Amino acid sequence: QVSAPPARGTAMGLSHGAPTESAAERFASFGPPLAPPSPWGPASDARWRWAVDAAAWEPCHGSGGAEFHFLLSLLPIAERPLVMRSPSLRDQKHCLLGRLLARRACARALGEASLSNFEIGRTKGQKPFLKQPLPPYLPNFNFNVSHDGRWVVLASDPLRLVGVDISAPQRWRGDAEDDKWLEDLSNLLFDKEQAYIAREATVRERYSVFQRIWSAKESVTKAVGEGLDFGLGRIEVTLDGVDPSSEWQSFLGRFSEQHGEQPMTVAPSPYADVSIDMWPRPEWEVRQQLLPDDHWVTVAMGPVEEAVDANGEFVGTFRVHQAGAASGGAVQQGPPGAAPFFEVLPVEALVPAVDAEAFEALRRETASMPAFG
What we know:
By secondary structure, the chain is of the alpha+beta class. It has eleven helices and twelve strands. It has helices at about 20-30, 65-70, 80-85, 90-110, 170-175, 180-185, 190-200, 205-225, 245-260, 325, 355-365; strands at about 50-55, 120, 130, 140-150, 150-155, 160-165, 235-240, 270-275, 280, 285-290, 295-300, 345. The radius of gyration is 22 Å and the shape is globular. The strands form three sheets. Strands 6, 7, 8, 9, 10 and 11 form a six-stranded antiparallel beta sheet that branches. A four-stranded mixed beta sheet has the order 4-5-1-12, with helices on one face. Helix 7 (about 190-200) runs antiparallel to helix 8 (about 205-225). The protein has a single domain (about 30-365), classed as CATH 3.90.470.20. The N and C termini lie far apart (about 55 Å).
């Protein structure tokens, strides 16, 4: 069944009525979004984009070594078994680094030096969020984490829902480089999306376009807090504002085939537009970036009224609804080229300043130890 898009001020999960003067006043009372300076960095608008190269981090003796357990000890006791129960070292690293990135973001939003002076909750769909205390000058602060292949990434926003998804190429996932995936997933891809993929000349190029499409879909579902239960098949993706079935694109495709050129070109600042249940959703801003080793990462930002939160705790952290209307459009961050780029953080950037010296000493010590099988 096709449903109409939410009216302005009406969410997929919430309804808050028409914009009111009090909503604008409430937005104004917070002032410009601002995370205070802290040992983690200077004052910031909290639109963070962080990436950690998990594959490059090779802790001595793996998850059984002192370096891994030092970082593990920075998490609450209840979270540590969740990291260690992961089936492989790669998954354990992904889980640990992702949870540390989340705590780093919350600490920086609050101006806290410690990773432990706050509580992180999760929606029924497992989206993490800062439960308490709430940042004084970041009225709708939320974040999201993703990992795949080489990278673990985080994106945050002070006003809008934010979701992030990273997609690794087949070789980084340990999969055969072929097109069998297309048969399995074609029922979740619209004709337009399959046309984008079909235009490409090689398996790697076709999968790269698929990564962009799939990552865009997942980032939206993660932003609303529901994950895959939202239904990826509800979301149709248009890449870089180009319809692959247009006459101009058909001409480019024929020209490229005749001259042996690749028909798909990636915009200087790649982005996507989405339709949900067949309705265009321009209020969703979807930005994309290619990280090293052919990993595509997508950040989706949309209205907080569209959060899906069965428990009600996540939406309870939002203090300014209809932020776009209340701010007079200030929430919109400009054209695709204005999007913040991902900053690559070393593992040591996840360690609080008070523990940094001890961590570096431990790394030097373990680096000088002989390796045992």
